[in-house]
TrEMBL record:
InterPro entries: HTH_MarR-typ, MarR/SlyA-like, WH-like_DNA-bd_sf, WH_DNA-bd_sf. GO terms for biological process: response to stress. It comes from Streptomyces leeuwenhoekii. Residues 25-158 form the HTH marR-type domain. Residues 1-22 are annotated as: Disordered. Residues 1-14 have a biased composition (Basic and acidic residues). This is Transcriptional Regulator. GO terms for molecular function: DNA-binding transcription factor activity. Transmembrane segments: none annotated.
Amino acid sequence: MRETHTAADRDGRGTPDTTGTAGIAAGLGGLLGPLRRAVLRATRNAEGLPDLPEAQIELLRTLSTSPEGLSPGTVAARLRMAPSTVSNLVRTMSAERLVERVRPDHDQRTVVLTASREALELLSRYDRASTAALARVVDDLPAADRRALAQALPALDRLVAALETADTTANGTPAA
C-alpha cells in the first residue's frame, strides 16, 4: 500500500492520522496527483492512446460541452488558466488538428474554438478506456474497499463543488 503521510502526520503508534480535518486534507492532497497520473497512464497503455498532456485533455473536455464553440476568453475562465496559456495550447492543438478556430458568421472579427471530430473521437476513446481500466482495478479490490469508494463519490463531488465555490469567492472568477 502507498504511504501518503509524512512522519509528522503519524499518531504515536506510527500509523497515519486521517481522522482530523488536516489529516484528511493531507491524505487527499497526497493521493490526488498520483491517482490522476496513474489513471491517465493506465488509460493510455490500455488503448495505445497518444500521450496528450492533461491540460490538452481538459481543454478538449471543455470544448466538447459546447458544440457551437467557445471564445478563448471563456475557455480560459472555465479552466482557470491564463489567456496566454490557452493560446499556447490552442496553437499546439490546432497544428495537431484537435482544435479548430472558427469565425462566426455574425462577427468575422472574433474567433470561437471547437473540438475537431478527431478530438471528440479521441476523447471518447479516453473516456471508455479510463472507465474500463478503473473498472478492472476496482473489481479486484476487496468488497469493503469497493463499498467505501462508492460511498465516497458523493462526498468527493461535493468537495469539488466546495473548492470551486471557494475559488470563485476568493478571486471572483466564475465557477466552471
